[in-house]
Amino acid sequence: MNFDFTVQTDKKPEQVVNDLENTLKEASFGVLWSFNVKEKLDEKGVGFDSDYYILEVCNPQIAKDALQSTKMAGYFLPCKVVVYENEGQTYIGMPKPTVLMEHVESEDVMRVAEEVEDTLRECFKKAV
User: Fold this and answer.
1) Is 1:120 a contact under the CB 8 Å cutoff?
2) Residue 120, Cβ neighbours under 10 Å: how many?
3) What per-residue confidence (pLDDT) applies to 121?
């Protein structure tokens, strides 16, 4: 089983981040935190060659449901999404919630993870 789900697009990373934020909002997910890795590393004098964004996304009701089932679910919340450029192509990816939540060993949480994974996959597809 693959650990991640990643899709490719010809759009620029900044546009993908914007489009992804809109599709996430339509699916009742919000971006809690967005981090421009290239910008931050450049600011620190380290430098980085390509665009790379890390977003933490969450649906508050789903997160609450998972945490009420087991507090261990919090180890894997919120969902982490990356948008990056590599050799002229842009990618949107995430670790699969179903793979992460296997460690929690809860059927209720696994059902939630499947729902989240399906929703985020659709959001990725719409954003490309």
Assistant:
1) no
2) 24
3) 96
Number of domains in the chain: 1
Q: Are 40 and 66 in contact (CB under 8 A)?
A: no
Instruction: Please state the pTM of the whole predicted model.
Output: 0.92
| CATH number, residue 94 | 3.30.310.70
CA 9: distance to chain centroid?
16
pLDDT in tens, 46-75: 989 899 999 999 999 999 999 999 999 999
Residues of the domain holding 70: 4-127
Query: DSSP string covering 56-90, please?
Result: EEE-HHHHHHHHHH-GGGGGG-SEEEEEEEETTEE
How many other CB atoms are there within 10 angstroms of residue 83's CB atom?
28
